[in-house]
Amino acid sequence: MEIALDASIPTYSGGLGVLAGDTLRAMADLRLPVVAATLVHRKGYFRQHLDGDGKQTESPDEWSPEDRLEALEPRVLVTIEGRPVTLRAWKYEVAGVTDHRIPVYLLDSDIESNDEYDRALTDSLYGGDIRYRLCQEVVLGIGGIAILRALGHADFHTYHMNEGHSSLLTLALLQEHASLHDRGSVIESDVDDVRQKCVFTTHTPVDAGHDRFSAELVESVLGKERTGILARLTHPEAGVFNLTKLAMFFCRSANGVSIRHAHVARRMFPETSISAITNGVHVGTWTSPPFARLYDRHVPDWRRDNRYLRQASAIPREEIQMAHAETKATLLAEVERRTSTKLNAGTMTIGFARRATGYKRADLLYTDEERLRRIIERVGPLQLVYGGKAHSRDTTGKAAIERIFSVARELKDILRVVYLEEYDMRLAAVMVAGVDLWLNNPLKPLEASGTSGMKAALNGVPSLSVLDGWWLEGWIEGVTGWAIGDRSEESGDPVAELDSLYGKLENAILPMFYDRPRAYADVMRSAISHNGSFFNAQRMVSQYVQNVYEPGSAPREEELVSS
Ligand SMILES: *Cc1c(COP(=O)(O)O)cnc(C)c1O
Known about the structure:
Elements: H1 15-29, E1 36-39, E2 47-50, E3 56-59, H2 65-68, E4 70-71, E5 76-80, E6 83-95, E7 101-108, H3 116-119, H4 130-150, E8 159-162, H5 169-180, H6 188-197, E9 198-201, E10 212-214, H7 215-222, H8 224-234, E11 240-242, H9 243-249, E12 253-256, H10 259-268, E13 274-276, H11 283-286, H12 289-298, H13 317-339, E14 348-353, H14 369-379, E15 382-387, H15 395-410, E16 416-420, H16 425-434, E17 437-440, H17 452-458, E18 463-466, H18 471-474, E19 481-484, H19 494-515, H20 517-532, H21 537-549, H22 557-562
Parallel strand pairs: 1-7, 8-9, 9-12, 12-13, 14-15, 14-17, 15-16, 17-18, 18-19
Antiparallel strand pairs: 2-3, 4-6, 5-6, 6-7, 10-11
The structure holds pyridoxal-5'-phosphate.
Pyridoxal-5'-phosphate binds near residues 424, 450 and 451.
């Protein structure tokens, strides 16, 4: 549903879209024969405005595909709520480190002959009501297959659905297969055929990520016949169609995005075998210029093959410290430009930025203000840089932003806190590289993977994070960063978790940062060599090729159980 193609094209909202873009960039690095489809989102996600109290308002983030993308000729028709809707597509080419290009087709319904309602269907990412969302998913899944065929792409070896948003493509494939065999109705062998072609990745255990629609709505949008096919094959529970379950029904392979997430997803969907492919980030995109120059000197060929970053262990500490001083200066200049706040280059700077939503707990650090005061007085100063948008209807997320603003005021005698507006790829790149420590404290087990900590690691910035998602795999205590709490699957006792957070800052991180800077530089270096070399999108894509895309590669049940 979203792909972050370029920092200046607002076709994404957060982690899922950035991951999709990074995946395609790594596929281009590896010269894979892939095409992608998404919606054009003419009004983007939204622009975020924060007033002096941190109250968020939103405005559309309009852009012109006409100025940035290549127009494609074909027009296709899909039926939505009984109306014929004409679609076209725009093309963007994703480039990697080689001359290989991956075409992305962005579907667009803004065509004069369409109804006013239909013309707006490809405008807003995650906007509108549930009816709008289902109509968008018809455009993406059914319109997507139609546009691919019209562009001359015959059948593919594999269709990779990411989240249930795209899963109506299975219906299009099913009907295509039936009509290919001159049958008016779908039979069991059509189902097997579609299943052999489709793979699915679930990206979050959070409920809002799993689309569910009532039978009435599905019938009014898809019509009686198509709804009948879906109902007959997938047996919706209590009249509710769950598009994640639809994707799982029709795929030959399903996976989660970290080892822990796959465990959690197996509990949510016990009827499906779910393997794990842990996410990664695109190294060429997320390495800051000072670190790119450093790697150019010490790690030849790191862009083409990210695994060579393992050799970062031989980079002299001083050079890592010097590169980091540059990225930190860039961040502090950006903070001053945006907020007129001067941060101190010698002070431990903690970064926290991601979608602002309840389970991410942006304000957890301020639960015990007195304790925080004592820590700072005892072991040294702190400053914090925040960023992140709350979805327009997410009142908890919005309240978390306001809380950061009010804390900044209450603690201003001992602590500098800034919250930067409009967190996007560009700001993320400056933040993850410029801070000294990347903080992540979501409520377990809701962080499927998390990727911003991987971006930080590529720039020598260690994480302090709860043991959820990717950090369970990337964490070596005191070597690549630090853990908050233990390995248990649920967050459990909030007091113990909080105690761990404060304890790590007070007894491990701040004393090392201020008193043993060489030891801190060792941690920075290990973050690169251990985690940059593994939690990258080239490794992730290689795992998709080896474990999911290649014929006969679907893991057997026994393998899944033992993993
Ligand atoms: C990387 C990124 C995210 C995802 O961060 P998480 O740590 O996975 O929550 C969200 N938004 C932007 C703009 C990003 O670059």
